[in-house]
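Service request form, structural biology core

Requester: graduate student, group of Dr. S.
Request type: structure prediction, single chain
Budget code: on file
Notes: please return the result as structure tokens.

Sequence provided:
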Amino acid sequence: MGPIEKSILSALAVLKPHFLDLRNESFLHSVPKHSETHFKLTIVSDVFEQKRHVQRHQLVFGLLSDQLSGPVHALSMTTLTLDEWNRASREIVESPKCMSGSS
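Core staff response, request fulfilled:
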């Protein structure tokens, strides 16, 4: 786990997630080896209750403003309440390969 991934996890801790999966998907893109530029986030938190999806994303974007204004180029995210997570398949869908990816 690299320093940017650690900083993202640290920033998201305030949401007290029931579940958090953060994947560095930089290797799927045309970036140097060991980059931390593209991430996929699945997070389940009570903080998302009574919030629309756009509000949830805005909250996460606000918490990660330092990372997103610098080293992180892309962040895909799924933000769920515990009830939504329990009703869902609890599966994290694999991301499609980038057309110009390095893998």
